[in-house]
Amino acid sequence: MKKKYADVFENARKFIYRNARPIELACWRYHFENGPREEVLTALSYYQNDDGGFGHGLEADCWNPYSSPIQTWQATEILRGIGFTDGGHAVIQGILRYLDSGSDFSQEHNQWRNVILTNNDYPHACWWEYGNNGGEFKYNPTACLAGFIIRFADKNSGLYKKACEIAGQACDWLLSNLPMDDSHVISCFIRLYEYCSEAGKTDLFAMEKLIGILKEQVSLNICKDTEKWGKEYVTLPSAFISSSDSIFFEDSREAAEAECGFIINSQLSDGSYSVPWQWWTEYREYETAANWWKSVTIINNMLFLTRTASLARSAQTADRFGQRISGDAGGK
């Protein structure tokens, strides 16, 4: 029996209210129930440390309570998701203070660290293990954090000038490392482009050239083999495309429409979606983290459905891909 969008949404809602952390519940309420933005900010503030950075498992695969660049990056993504742009707010000012402190910053590479030593003292996925991460200096999350600074910092500050320098270096690095088979890195450069555009700072690199490169890399990184979706850790269109207004949408329209069908058909009986990765460590906390990620995935999936395709198109896509992407396709 064909699933109806209304049923998919209601099942997702039930899971959120039964399982979500306060931060994801607040985000759900903001996006789908006219909940107040302040509720998200309040929930987010509990993950912010005195130094202005974020920790405490905000990035659910890393339970380090201390501030780290990657968990601070996660906070910037949540702020962007709710359209919060008050640069004078304590949360944003705290982030800028942390980034300006020099903590977790490599002078040698002129980048914030992807992983930090104290990660090893708390439950975490293998990719957040200090000393185990070969991609530590691939501008994830540095490119995004530099863009955040350019968007919100005082233009006369040393931090702003530093971010501009880093942004230029980052783009030079990207040009010399193509093709880039790393969706997380590409996402950070997309954010850098967006933040600089919003700030009117268009002289740091060739913007048109960069966007052309990003379009090529987005198309390259999206997994076209739908048989792997939900089963393997592969990149789906929603990793880059937030709505049908995205500059990346037209080049990946068919894949984006296919993902709408996948979202409808692959929902589990409890309203959630499977988590297609493991921690590959002995920490039993993975099961808890996976449950947290399910709420994040639900929010992202429902936003993608509502912003990317009409219900009619989604239904057609669901029929078209129904044979290959069945309701149990997301099983582990």
Coarse shape: globular
Q: Tell how many strands the DSSP assignment holds.
A: 2
Tell me the strand percentage band. Answer: under 5%
- Numbering strands along the chain, what is their spatial order in the largest sheet? 1-2
Which terms summarize this structure?
332 residues, mainly alpha, two-stranded antiparallel ribbon
Detail the topology: elements first, then pairings.
Layout: H1 5-19, H2 22-32, H3 37-45, H4 69-81, H5 90-100, E1 105-106, E2 111-112, H6 142-152, H7 158-175, H8 183-199, H9 207-221, H10 253-265, H11 286-308, H12 311-320
Antiparallel strand pairs: 1-2
Helix pairs in contact: 1-11, 2-3, 2-11, 6-7, 6-8, 8-9, 10-11, 10-12
Overall description:
The chain is mainly alpha-helical and 332 residues long. It contains twelve helices and two strands; from the N terminus they run αααααββααααααα. The protein has helices at residues 5-19, 22-32, 37-45, 69-81, 90-100, 142-152, 158-175, 183-199, 207-221, 253-265, 286-308, 311-320; strands at residues 105-106, 111-112. Helix 6 (142-152) packs antiparallel against helix 7 and helix 10 (253-265) packs across helix 11 (286-308). The model is unreliable at 314-332 (pLDDT under 50).
